[in-house]
Amino acid sequence: MGIPWLTATLQPLADVRLLQDEAVVIDGPALAYHILHVCRINGVVQPSYRLVAQTTLAWLDELSSHNVVVAAIYFDGHLPESKLEIRMERSMRNSARIGRLFFDNPHGCRRDQIAAVGGQNHGLNQLTSANVDAFRAGVPSVKALADPSFFVPAIVEALRCSDRYRSVVRLGPGEADTVCARHVAKHGGLVLTSDSDLLVYDLGAGEVAFFRDIYRGAESAIMCSSFAPRSISNKLGLLGSTGILRVAYELQCAPHATLPQITRACERPVANMPKYLELHKRYLHDEDEQEGDFRDLGHQLLPRLSKLDPRLSELVVELYSSVIPRHSNSVARIFLPVLIENMDRGSAWQQSTPIRRLAYSLLEIDSPGRSMSILEYRRVQSVTQKGRLIETASATEIGQYIDEVLEVMERMKDLDSVPGRYYWPLVGLALDIGECQKQGKQSHAWHMLQQRYKQSVAWSNSVSWGVVHLFAQVQATLYSFRMLRQVMSIVRKGAAKYKLPSNLKQLWPAVRHFPPLTGFPEMDDILGLLLESREAGFMREFAELMCFDMVSSPDVDKAAKGASERSTDGGMDENVQNLATKHDKWNKANKFGVLSAD
C-alpha cells in the first residue's frame, strides 16, 4: 500500500545517478505493473500476455547490458491473514472498474478495452516488444478501464522460461516487498519497487529506487533516483535504523506537512505511542514468523511450489502447512483474477468451477492436514463478502469426473474442421455445454456458438457483451485447466500413497503440455471462431461428436438468461456455515454439477 506522500516528501534527498555496475533485487508485482504501464505509454491499452512477457524480458535485458546484476525477483508467495481486508478492498475496486466499463457501455465493450495488442495471430497483434520503448517516459494517451486478467502470472511464467532469469525468480514467504527488504538488509544492494513501504524498513546499507524514476538518459545511459534510508536519516538528524519510520508516522499524523515541519516534529516525543508501535510492528523483520509456513512444507514440496502460480501457491501453503492454525470450520481462500464480463450475468468463472474443484480436491487428498473448504473470491462487492464456497469431492467422485474430461478430450481429437489452437477452449466449452444439457439448462456458450455473425464483427469498434462474456468464460476455463495442470505436477507422484484415482495417470499426459498464458486465445481468436463456426460444417460436426442438440437463435445479443446464469455473487456475504448448509444437498448429489451451484 505504501505511506502517502512519503516518497514526495523525501524526494529532495534522493540521489539522481547512473544505474549500472551493481546488484538489484526486484519487487516482482511492482515490476509487472510497471511493464503494463510501459506498454500503455507506448499506446497499447490492452497488451497481450505475449507482449507484456516480451517487454519484461527486454526491460531486464537492457538493465543487464549496463552490468546491472539481478540478484532476485520476488513475488508474493503467501499473504498473511492481516492483509485480507486490503486484498478485499483491492478486489472490490477492480470489480467496480469492470462494473463501470459495463454500465457505461450498454451496447457493447469498446474494442480498445478488450482486444489485446501484441499477440500472435491477427492484424495489430503482430506488434512485438521491438516496437515498445521499454524506458519511455510519460503518461498513457488513453485511459485503460481494466487490466489484462492474467498479466502478472504471464510475466512470472515468462521469467521462469527464460534461461537468464529463471534462477532468480522466487515466491517469497509473505509479501514481495517484505522479502525484498530482508534480502537487501542481509546482503546489501538496491531494491527496485513502486512501494514506498520499502523506505520504512531497516535496510541497513541497502537503497531503494522506484520504477517511475528509472529512465533512459543521454547516450542511452539508464538513470534512477536512489533513496538511501540510513543516509537520509542521518541528514535529518534521526536514528539510522528507525528514522524513516518516524517520518512515516509523522506523515500519517500530518499528511500535508513539509519536510522541515516533519523534521521538527521528529525532535519531539511521540504523541501517540500505541499508534507508533503499531506502525513499527508492521515493518519488523520477523523472519521466523514469515518463513515458518514455507519451511514447514518440506524440501520435497518447496521446489515444486516455486513453479506455481502465486495464487495457487497461497492455497498450497494453507493446505499443506501445519504451522497455520486449523479449526473444524477452516477455510482456504483463493482470489481469482477479475474478468471483463457481462455484469448482468453470473460470474464467468462459474462454468469452469468443476475443473477447479477437481484441482482443489486433488490438493486436499494429497495434503497431510485436515480437510478444508475452499472459498473463491470472484466479483467482490464488499469487504465483508465471504466468497463462494467450493466443497471438495471424494476420490470416487474425482475419478468419475476425470473420466468425463478424458472422454471429451478423446472426442475432440476427431474434430477435423477446426484449427488446433481452438482445441482447449472447445474442450472447456464442451464440458459446460454437456453439463447444461444434462440439467436442462441453456448454455450461453452454446447459444453464442450457434449464431450467424456478420464479417463486420471482426473490425467493429465495439464487441457485444454476449461475445465478451463468452471470451471471459474461455479465459476462465483455460486458467482453470492451467491450475489443474500445476496441481497435478505436485500430487501425481503421491497418487498411490494417498489413493488418488488410477485414471489420474491418463489425465497427466493429456494436460502436461497445456499451453502457456502467452498462447491463450485473444478476442480476435474468439471472433474468428464465431465467424468460422458455421463454415466447413464445424458446428454440426462438433454437435454430433459431443451429442449436443442444435437449437439456433437469430438474435446474437439476447442470450437466454436463466436463473442459473443470473449473478448471485452480490449475495455472497453470508457466513460460511450458511453457505455450506445451502449447498449441502447439491454437493452430496453432484460435486461437479456446475450450474446447480448457483
From TrEMBL:
<feature type="domain" description="Asteroid">
    <location>
        <begin position="148"/>
        <end position="383"/>
    </location>
</feature>
<dbReference type="Pfam" id="PF12813">
    <property type="entry name" value="XPG_I_2"/>
</dbReference>
<dbReference type="InterPro" id="IPR026832">
    <property type="entry name" value="Asteroid"/>
</dbReference>
<keyword id="KW-0396">Initiation factor</keyword>
<dbReference type="InterPro" id="IPR039436">
    <property type="entry name" value="Asteroid_dom"/>
</dbReference>
<dbReference type="InterPro" id="IPR029060">
    <property type="entry name" value="PIN-like_dom_sf"/>
</dbReference>
<comment type="similarity">
    <text>Belongs to the asteroid family.</text>
</comment>
<protein>
    <submittedName>
        <fullName>DNA replication initiation factor cdc45</fullName>
    </submittedName>
</protein>
<keyword id="KW-0648">Protein biosynthesis</keyword>
<dbReference type="GO" id="GO:0003743">
    <property type="term" value="F:translation initiation factor activity"/>
</dbReference>
